[in-house]
Amino acid sequence: MRKFLLPLLISLVTFSTQAADEPGACLTPGTDYLAMEFNAFDQTMKQGWREVADREGCELAAADLIRTYYTEHSDLSEGRLGLLRWHEGQMRAEAAQYEQAVALFHQTYRDPENDSFGWNYYVTATIAFIEKDKERLLEAREQLAAVEKPSSLNMTDANGNPVEMRWPPNLHIVDNFVACFGKTYLEAYSTQCE
């Protein structure tokens, strides 16, 4: 009986690993991801690439889907293209494709004159974490922490209701990069380190 179960278990493990590696296994049949408008594809939880990324082992399928989406949609603004490249980079970093992730992250830097939220410091901190450069990570963290909240900033939801926002944005993620230094991007981004 044991001789039968072992090959069966091995074949089931092999099948489940292969399924996640095959892009089609990660996509919902009948869903036309490329026909989705930008907000549905990129900004809505449980839809678009995020739905794919939520499936275990489907980070690369999500990254490839994002790349295909922005390649097929040549009418995207620079801002939206930057967001998609960032999200593709995150998926590649979660899958430990660090070189590709860093290259994508570099493409998301903004003109410093249009960076009142400290985005560039967040990008630098993320790259420093991946490249295991603690000094640069700590420097970027301090620069991000020093970003002053614009007095004219009034965040609201779609109905015009005020929305509280952590300030500066992404500092909590960078703090976790510091606490998780030496761990993988996936560990640092998805768990709280002490």
TrEMBL record:
UniProt keywords, alphabetically: Signal
Superkingdom of this protein's organism: Bacteria
Signal sequence segment: 1-19
Protein's name in the database: Tetratricopeptide repeat protein
Organism: Pseudidiomarina aestuarii
